[in-house]
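FYI - complex with protoporphyrin IX containing FE, inputs then prediction.
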Amino acid sequence: PFPWYRKQLEKGAVLADDSYGGWHIFGYTEAQTALRNHTHFSSERFRNSGNMTNPRPSILNLDPPRHTQLRSLVNTAFTPKAIRHWSTRIQEIVDELLNSISINNETGETIDLVSTLAYPLPVIVIAEMMGIPAKDREKFKRWSDVLVEGPSSLTPEIIMDLMQRKQVAREEMRHYFYDVLTKSQHPEHSLIAILLEANLEREKLTAEELISFCILLLAAGNETTTNLITNFWRCMLQYPQALEDLQHDHSLVPSAIEETLRYYSPVQATSRIVTEDIEFYGVEMKSGDHVTIWLAAANRDSSIFTNPDTFDIYRSPNHHLAFGHGIHFCLGAPLARLEAEIAIHTMLQRFSSFQAVPAEWEPIISGFVFGLYSYPMKI
Ligand code: HEM
């Protein structure tokens, strides 16, 4: 997508969509302004869609005041401080996953980074945080994968099939969480216990709203974090000097993660609906217009980032928009950063050499997700 972003950025920061109607935002300042202005740019994408597939919107698809009320229920569980409590457990999970590899010290070993580490890690972590028993993890992963899957092509049959599979997954999850939520015992400090407790004290959510929340927590953080870890190693093997520097100095890991988020953003775009006619950086947007905000293009805007197409682990400042901006800024950002940090540190400590393996990569085909289904590398 990157040459296309470059071409669009050269044409303009805000462009009309000639095929489908609506607008595309590519520029950094313009994207930030739209994300900050939740009054004119609504997240309630499902408000008028008759809504069979999304009967109770989650916070991702809500505007204030409901958004503020619901987000505050779990905010405290996701602060960087609260998330740091999970460090030891995340380290254990990473160790367990990497222990499954046996390496011949002479010849090395080719692993698939995705299935060995990047894919199982986030789902195990979030399932544990929610207090879900280990035996149900596989089921969880399957559901969350379907929920974020994009159509492999834009034919009506494929889209219908995907919609139906999403509907089935959502129904199965609803039943699952309904059972979980109505149980009287929940592991102490689990997200579900926190949600229920805060709810009793304050918000009085319906069971449906609680269930949507659980589904969002599960779906929003899995594929995205998997792709962050995969995209990180893809950058490292593409730019050997960066890897060499990192191997000499592990304290560069956090800034290398930030640069990966900017350079290969796991979520390439998000969208909003215009709530009333507005002039926006010289164009006339109409109420009801659909706006696609290309975070990944904004992250390569040369008016903000020097040499935007260069991968630079020393880049500072690096105020990328990979986690969004404004009131919907990613709730799980501290968790995603911590998981990636521990996973990458551990690999750098355990293995002395990392090499690319020539392979046909299968990109994840979905408008807004940037990642790979598998990533073989030699360690
Ligand atoms: C929102 C990206 C990991 C939970 C968002 C948004 C982005 C994003 C761009 C804003 C969408 C918008 O404004 O429309 C990412 C990336 C991740 C990641 C790139 C990993 C590298 C996670 C994790 C969790 C999570 C691990 C939770 C366990 C959420 C939630 C929201 C959100 C609940 C909605 C927040 C709101 O609407 O107020 N994420 N995310 N994300 N993310 Fe993440």
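Residues 207-238 form the longest helix (32 residues). Strands lie at 14-16, 23-25, 41-42, 110-112, 270-274, 278-280, 283-285, 290-293, 355-356, 376-378.
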